[in-house]
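Email to the structure team, subject: Coproporphyrinogen III oxidase model.

Hi all, the expression group asked for a predicted structure before they design truncation constructs. Nothing fancy, just the tokens so they can compare against earlier work. One-line instruction: predict Coproporphyrinogen III oxidase, return tokens.
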Amino acid sequence: MSEKKKKVVIVGGGITGLSAAFYMQKAAREQNLPLEVLLIEATNRLGGKIQTVRRDGFVIERGPDSFLIRKKSMDILAKDLGIEGELVRNATGQAFILVNGKLQPIPGGSIMGIPTEVGPFLKSDLFSWSGKLRAAGDFIMPRSGIDGDQSLGHFFRRRFGTEIVENLIEPLLSGVYAGDIDQMSLQSTYPQFYQVEKKHRSLILGMKKTSPKQAPQKDSHGASKKGAFHSFRNGLSSVVEAIEAQMEPGSIMKNVKIDSVLKQGEQSVLKLNSGQTVTADAVILTTGHMAASQLFESYGLLQGLKEIHTTSVATVALAFPKEAIVQDREGTGFLVSRSGNFSITACTWVHRKWPTTTPDGKVLLRAFVGRIGEEAIVDLPDDEIERIVLEDLGNIIEINGKPDFTIVTRYKEDRPQYRVGHRERVVAAKAELKREFPMVKLAGASYEGVGLPDCIDQGRAATDEVLAELFGE
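Reply from the structure team: attached below.
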């Protein structure tokens, strides 16, 4: 006797939706479940922010370029896809902060901006002696006493003072969110710092005790030779292509949007802009939060998600002949302090950090522009953004000649901001759906982590939840 198939629709073909779809189909095959999976993507391509350009021997990422190895889910996904042999680890080297127009090395022993070695910190020109003395207050300062959420800026300024925050901690911690450290949620972005303070009181002593020991081998700059990041030899799109190739035939719909969602008993009926309707036993919604809130606006649900702000960013990849760039410092790139008069927020020397991306005799730079309060540049024409970026870079390193080509990529109102109270907003939204549309799950970068492994974790968690509800433990 054949059991009637259950249907799961996954909305959104970014890494969250792709991982959910892949693992949903994997579970169906391995457990012989009567399950049909359909992935619906509004654009003509899968991958979301992941987009690799392969041109003239270069491997150029338009979006994310790597992921933390210590977060295991992407490595596990690569193994499950059979492409783990394509993983490459980043080359290490000195990273810099641009302060007052000068590239200053990030002090050795800094763990996410927290100084854990006295010598390199005292020798650093990133800070004045008064700034160093103020940071030393962390050794004697009591715990904050705040049990709820607070901003990263408030938390770190209290412990280390403004100078350390602005010249080191803010560039390091706010970059991935392109956010304002004085509005970013400690609880939702870097909760480990709160836990370290709670347990050890001093962040410096606590990070020193809890962080993994550095490898004994060091390069000439004192950096560990073992990179902390992975990517794929032929770019991050490799994982997108592998998932798409292994999905069941007919299980992906592109260029299709969801116009509305109706509840029909214990099922959802999705009306598509193509005129079709799809009835689903479960829906995993991996779109951005604004699209999710609009989809349920007529029900008065998920409207709190509109309080999640977004910002616009752009990246500019620049390919040069090797002789065009004179770099008197060995390193992998730099971050820019907000105190500087520059439009760029960071630059990666990609040919050094990821040698497999760049042909011999060439140099690949990748600059970033746009963050909270500085988004206007993203709206400029490509050639104007290129001009501004080249002018900034020319004031930092010596550039002789024009690039062979540039690639400008914009992400408009796309980077979710995890502001104070973010976790409560997400919990409330999920509770609303559980009460009114229990067959619909939320997952993705807007909610519980923007990194690729975080998104994969959310996709897998939603998959596990759906399978448990449809088929039991």
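The radius of gyration is 23 Å. Residues 441 and 465 are 9 Å apart (CA to CA). Ping us if the truncation boundaries need rechecking.
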